[in-house]
Amino acid sequence: MVDTVQLQAAAFRRLLRHLNRERTDVQNIDLMILAGFCRNCLADWYREAAGDAGQPMDREQAREAVYGMPFAEWKALHQQEATPEQLAAFEAARRRHG
């Protein structure tokens, strides 16, 4: 019988593959606007979980685990400057959910 944790881990790995290989066109700011979280949030949650499990991890290590490469490299390859429209939408979403 498959453990629930194994299923959750498989789903998490699939989410990371989807975001970092198949949908690199989706910017973190767009994820924040629409879903209230982004790849960096996932890295923060990953780091917190590691700490809770007694495995200290810094921000860059967590981001590399989530992005599959150093964050600076992923950012240079895939991240674009936010447009004024994205920034305005982000601010409106922040006010709605803040």
TrEMBL record:
Top-level taxon of the source organism: Bacteria
Domain SMc04008-like stretches: 26-91
Name listed for the protein in its UniProt record: Deoxycytidine triphosphate deaminase
Origin species: Pseudoxanthomonas suwonensis
Lineage, highest ranks first: Bacteria, Pseudomonadati, Pseudomonadota, Gammaproteobacteria, Lysobacterales
